[in-house]
Write a sequence for this structure.
């Protein structure tokens, strides 16, 4: 067993908002990320899935230190990032990078592609010769499948997929060891999605990166992840090996997510879909349900689910789940007809 | 992994294209082209350039001096024979030369006071908006306090304490105008600092100064430029107003506002003393407004086709 490069322990992020006037100020606390723990090995890919608002992006930003977590630890190669001061954290940014969701919004419209890719180099290697920086930027563009002669173009002159390639080039230019991809393809066309995912896979193989791949779509995560963490309202529901998760999900929520993936063949769809729709909306995060957080939408709810909070526990084959009934439920997915 | 690149290289045209760098077209260049298509703005720009040239070199070309009294022609109407094309005022001074010289002061006040408010307002607003929280609250409350001072009271107080001087006009107008700029810039900064590209820059370890310099300020310059072109006429107008009240520039110096004030007194007997300076002032104000409108349309990113 290798030691993990990243070890997240009990990470919790609260957002406080104030309502009411000056005199009757009320404080409302929203727990965006609730005690998430996981390990990540070198050159491994962890997929994180969950509906919108389940705290995936907040988790990513908390790992990067862009948001201060309220509790918990982020151990990066044995060092706790949450205890570092601003300057020490800045130095670590060479090693952990992020690719954003909206490819166009994540690029400064007033800078050329070359400048965007070079900016991390200016920051960390201010003495690097300008020609060398440009050479490196061209090399990065080539690596992510952009024509290096477009180095002087501006973001609005690229397509969404090309912009995402620029974003990926920027995140890789410092040779990071971990790249967090925050829904990198959700703003792109399906055909471009596959290109970007394949690009990420290739780059990971070539550079030996560890990846955290965030998506709200299980079918995407399937292609790239080794293990998958399922989140719901800031809590982890399940953390399983990829194949095991798709074959036999341990948590009813995972099951519902898998079943909600659209199936192109209507005949097959009619057979696979039974009653396991994910009904209802996510409850208000200001007022989360008592007991198991998923109990308001769970089809397998028993009375215990409304009172006791299920802990994330390890099953015999090594996967983790937070459900009281994980042993008794058999949620095996009927894969092929 | 280079499959996509290799594919394109096999195409002979693409292979040839790779040799040459493609030239980028920045948003500024795009905006400039859009501005050139706006006829009102272009015409206004040409008029303003002509006006600037006239104001700068005109008085030197004229046979008259601004403070020269032509005793033979007091309150003379415009005429080519006397050489007073715009006529003279009640003490025989040439209105054309005085209007051009007054234009120097008016435009100078407009440009300098706006520049002062630009520099102070942008840095102040960007810092308050970017750092946010406590810093922001303190800085913006200070703006509110200065804002609450009645402008005329402030000007009169300055005049009483320091005496009438042209620099005081710059100070008074600049001191009030940067407040608006600071508020606008702060608002823009607040929305910019939450964009993903600023977050990306933070994730890349870029320090705060570089973020403000490279990411915040270039992206709010569009709004600021529009505001500047609309502030210049406003400042000119304020100066005219002060001069009209007798708080502005002093004889023998003049400005459009002072000239309009003088002209208004002789309006019935010698209307040309009012009409010409007023026309120059109005044309300038219109031109700046058209240029400002044109820039707003050109720089508005939502207008991008």
């Amino acid at each position: 067993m290798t030691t993990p490069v990243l070890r997240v322990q009990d990470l919790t992020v609260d957002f406080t908002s104030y309502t009411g006037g000056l005199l009757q100020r009320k404080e409302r606390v929203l727990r965006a990320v609730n005690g998430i723990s996981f390990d990540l090995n070198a050159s491994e890919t962890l997929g994180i899935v969950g509906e919108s608002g389940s705290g995936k992006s907040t988790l990513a930003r908390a790992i990067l230190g862009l948001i201060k977590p309220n509790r918990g630890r982020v151990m990066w190669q044995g060092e706790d990032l949450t205890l570092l001061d601003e300057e020490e954290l800045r130095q670590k940014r060479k090693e952990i990078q992020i690719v954003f969701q909206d490819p166009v919004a994540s690029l400064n419209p007033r800078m050329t592609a070359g400048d965007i890719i070079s900016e991390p180099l200016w920051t960390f290697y201010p003495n690097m010769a300008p020609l060398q920086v440009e050479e490196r930027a061209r090399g990065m563009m080539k690596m992510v499948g952009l024509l290096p002669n477009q180095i002087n173009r501006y973001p609005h002159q690229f397509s969404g997929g090309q912009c995402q390639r620029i974003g990926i080039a920027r995140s890789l230019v410092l040779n990071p060891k971990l790249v967090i991809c925050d829904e990198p393809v959700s703003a792109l066309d399906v055909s471009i999605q596959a290109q970007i995912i394949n690009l990420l896979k290739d780059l990971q193989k070539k550079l030996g990166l560890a990846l955290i791949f965030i998506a709200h779509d299980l079918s995407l995560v399937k292609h790239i992840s080794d293990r998958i963490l399922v989140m719901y309202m800031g809590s982890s529901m399940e953390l399983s090996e990829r194949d095991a998760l798709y074959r036999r999900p341990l948590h009813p929520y995972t099951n519902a997510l898998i079943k909600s993936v659209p199936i192109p063949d209507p005949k097959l769809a009619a057979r696979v879909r039974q009653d396991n729709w994910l009904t209802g909306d996510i409850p208000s995060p200001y007022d989360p349900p008592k007991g198991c957080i998923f109990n308001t939408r769970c089809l397998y709810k028993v009375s215990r689910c409304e009172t006791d909070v299920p802990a994330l526990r390890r099953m015999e084959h090594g996967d983790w789940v937070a459900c009281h009934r994980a042993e008794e439920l058999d949620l095996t997915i009927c894969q092929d007809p | 992994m280079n499959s996509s690149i290799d594919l394109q290289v096999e195409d002979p045209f693409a292979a040839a294209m790779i040799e040459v760098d493609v030239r980028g077209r920045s948003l500024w260049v795009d905006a400039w082209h859009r501005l050139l298509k706006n006829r009102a703005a272009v015409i206004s720009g040409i008029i303003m350039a002509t006006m600037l040239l006239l104001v700068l070199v005109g008085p030197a070309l004229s046979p008259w001096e601004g403070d020269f009294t032509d005793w033979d022609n007091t309150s003379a109407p415009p005429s080519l024979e006397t050489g007073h094309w715009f006529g003279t005022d009640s003490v025989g001074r040439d209105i054309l030369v005085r209007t051009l010289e007054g234009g120097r002061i008016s435009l100078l006040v407009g440009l300098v006071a706006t520049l002062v408010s630009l520099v102070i307002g942008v840095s102040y607003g960007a810092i308050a908006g970017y750092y946010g929280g406590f810093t922001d609250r303190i800085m913006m409350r200070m703006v509110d306090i200065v804002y609450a001072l009645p402008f005329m009271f402030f000007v009169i107080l300055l005049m009483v304490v320091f005496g009438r001087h042209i620099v005081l006009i710059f100070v008074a107008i600049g001191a009030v105008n940067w407040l608006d700029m600071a508020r606008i810039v702060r608002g823009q900064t607040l929305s910019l600092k939450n964009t993903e590209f600023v977050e990306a820059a933070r994730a890349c370890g870029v320090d705060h100064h570089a973020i403000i310099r490279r990411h915040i300020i270039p992206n709010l310059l569009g709004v600021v430029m529009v505001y500047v072109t609309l502030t210049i006429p406003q400042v000119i107008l304020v100066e005219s107003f002060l001069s009209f009240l007798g708080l502005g520039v002093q004889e023998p110096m003049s400005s459009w506002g002072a000239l309009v004030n003088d002209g208004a007194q002789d309006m019935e007997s010698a209307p040309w003393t009012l009409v010409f300076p007023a026309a120059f002032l109005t044309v300038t104000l219109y031109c700046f407004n058209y240029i400002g409108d044109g820039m707003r349309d050109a720089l508005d990113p939502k207008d991008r086709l």
Summary: Chain B touches chain A at residues 1-2, 4-5, 8, 14, 17-28, 195-197, 199-207, 210, 214-215, 218-219, 301, 304 (CB under 8 Å). Residues 95-131 of chain B form the longest helix (37 residues). Residues 1-9 of chain B have pLDDT under 50 and may be disordered. The radius of gyration of chain B is 25 Å.
